[in-house]
Design brief:
By secondary structure, the protein is α+β, with helices and mostly antiparallel strands. The chain folds into three domains: 1-35; 42-146, no CATH class; 169-239, no CATH class. The protein contains five helices and ten strands; from the N terminus they run αβααββββββββααβ. The strands form two sheets. Strands 1, 2, 3, 4, 5 and 6 form a six-stranded mixed β-sheet that branches. The protein has a four-stranded mixed β-sheet with strand order 7-8-9-10, with helices on one face.
């Protein structure tokens, strides 16, 4: 009789565990379907380069990519079947153990619409990590020399919500990102944040030379916006690879 009572308790425990696991799986499925409802352009080989990135990060990139491509077409194109693939050259996938922030950047080609873009992003285990950049994902137009399919009229999607531009004319040109640096607006006070991303080879061969070169490129871009970099407090951040 005692053995039957034990078996019954064991069976009840197993059934309860199975029920709990089932509810968790259903919750995850519901969450994923709810968070991926926005139109996206699927990146076919994202997982090959960024295996550890959360699915939500890929969704954020693909949603913004859809919006960017849509803004650079005539509006009549059907983008539902368009896919993109990451160009193997210049892929960055770094992790800073001090800040616990992952950063990535790559160039994506979209043959169906004959367009290419530069994409940079970051993520961390916790969304409230203070070291995350102001914009989780940035998509920018490429120099014509880097375009696979030739020139196309390209405009970056610029971020502005309410009073975030603070009346500063440079905000219409930010954020700006290349494979090597990212410029964002710090907000009140008119400060700028420039994050420089070094590759492993640059860190080994001549890190300071690479940093100075990208600093000058960032300053040149700021000047091209018709403003003087000396009028801004610039916070320089360097993202070094883990060797």
């Amino acid at each position: 009789m005692a053995e039957k009572r034990i078996d019954r308790k064991l069976a009840i425990g197993i059934i309860g565990t199975i029920g709990f696991v089932t509810l968790c799986i259903l919750a995850i499925i519901f969450y994923d379907s709810a968070s991926t409802s926005d139109p996206q352009i699927r990146i076919t080989n994202f997982g090959s380069y960024y295996r550890n990135a959360p699915s939500s990060t890929q969704v954020d990139i693909q949603v913004l990519l859809y919006k960017t491509v849509l803004s650079n077409t005539d509006g009549s194109s059907d983008l539902s079947s368009v896919t993109g693939s990451i160009r193997s050259e210049g892929v960055v996938d770094d992790y800073d153990p001090i800040t616990d922030v992952h950063t990535g950047s790559f160039v994506i080609d979209l043959p169906a619409v004959s367009q290419s873009y530069a994409i940079s992003f970051d993520w961390a285990r916790f969304n409230n990590n203070p070291h995350l950049s102001q914009y989780g994902v940035i998509i920018t137009c490429l120099d014509e020399s880097m375009l696979t399919y030739g020139f196309f009229p390209c405009s970056d999607i610029l971020f502005s919500t309410g009073d975030d531009d603070y009346g500063d004319p440079i905000t219409q040109y930010l954020p700006h990102s290349t494979l090597n640096y990212e410029i964002t607006y710090a907000g009140i006070g008119g400060g700028l944040i420039v994050k420089i991303v070094l590759s492993a080879s640059e860190e080994r061969i001549d890190p300071e030379g690479s940093i100075n070169r990208y600093k000058e490129q960032a300053l040149s871009y700021i000047r091209s916006a018709g403003v003087n970099p000396d009028d801004y407090t610039i916070e320089w951040r360097v993202q070094r690879p883990t060797l």
